[in-house]
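A protein record in our archive is deliberately plain, so that people and models can read it alike. The tokens are whole numbers drawn from a learned vocabulary of local backbone shapes. For reference, a complete record is included directly beneath this paragraph.
>
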Amino acid sequence: MAENKKKFLLDENLGKLAKWLRMLGYDAAVYKSISIEKKISLCKKERRVFLTRSKKIVRRKEKFSRILIKTEKYDEQLREIIHLIEFDNEMLSSRCLECNYKLQELQVEKIKDIIPENVKHNFSNFKICRKCGKIFWKGSHYTAMKSKLKNLLTT
């Protein structure tokens, strides 16, 4: 996995954009209930690009990487930052869509009692988020998201 990819910190109102960035394999953090000063500090310390809908935050005097997201729809928001992101098939679905942690490979034997029968019989590759416990596989939801991202970012 490419560890030199851009990392992002997003305002709370950009949660859907964060989810799609995570699907692409980007570290897209959303911190709730922390001050803007702390967010700026994290951006500097962790070398993150701050994505925000706030013109007030973009006009701040501090030096940190930031981009004003002007649109409301996530697909248009992805296009706004297309110069910073790429579609990399190897990185797809490498992060938890919910909590941003890196996913780890998981053997079906370890989860056979908690996944639906049809999933167990139709899929063999599974990943788990060690933070929130969510289990992922490349089913119809994955295929639809991949197709949408490929169309958005490679046209």
Summary: The mean pLDDT is 92. The chain has two domains: 7-80, 103-153. The helical segments are 15-23, 36-46, 55-58, 74-80, 108-111, 117-122, 140-153.
